Fold:
Amino acid sequence: MTSPPPSTSCPACGARAEGNFCSTCGASLVPRGCAHCGARLSARARFCHRCGRPVEPGPGAGAAGGPGRAGGAGLGGRSERVAWLTGGAVALVLVGAIVWKVAREAPAPAVPDMANPGVAASAPLGAGPLPAGPAPDISRMSPRERFDRLFNRVMAAAERGDTATVLGFTPMALGAYHQLDTIDTDARYHAAVLLMQAGDLPAADALADTILAGGRGHLFGYLVRGEAARLAHDSAGERRAYRDFLRSYDAEMRAGRIEYREHGPALARFKEEAERAVSGKP
Structure:
């Protein structure tokens, strides 16, 4: 092989260099040629620009043409790929460990006190309470059947302390609510329960306003307001909801609304709490 002139410029970094290797970057100063087709190669070429084959390192040169880096271009490329794959695998393991730890340590969601699903939600399609287990096929249900089924699944999971199911199905249930063809007071009540279950108290309180705007004095509006205030630790708002609930209770119950019959236990429990709070009893 021909030796370089006594003083020349490094083809890799441009620094003045002498001998067989650049003292600045370590690149080979000895002209290289492709062992397969004879094409003249640059100092740091890893593949021949003419035939595309990997460049074999010269004497004492590594993958990039510098001294002391063993293995050649092909090995260097494989090493980089192995490093990236190893790093990716480690990252996936770490992410999986974090997700598992968060899911394991997340506190079980608290079920709102007024969250009994009622007859319509607990027995959609006449099938009885929704059991635990695989999710049902809701693709063939009507929009209201789909919403009721998903609502009941979230409530049942919350009562069992099944945080993963609550987190997974609450967005689906709320999405089903927004797809309803018609929205009645009972559906709004169920949506408010879901919102409180998810911790979105302002949105639940807004639904209480919508319920009361559609039916002045409707007990569901005060029930939602009171429960949202309790979860927000707003004692003044909770007492105000109790008073409004008791003020409207008798007239509303005489109205004979079907949703009151379906949610009788929740209304009875809230009435008892309201009477105890207003009377000052512990």
Observations:
- The mean pLDDT is 75.
- Residues 1-105 form one domain.
- The two ends are 100 Å apart (CA to CA).
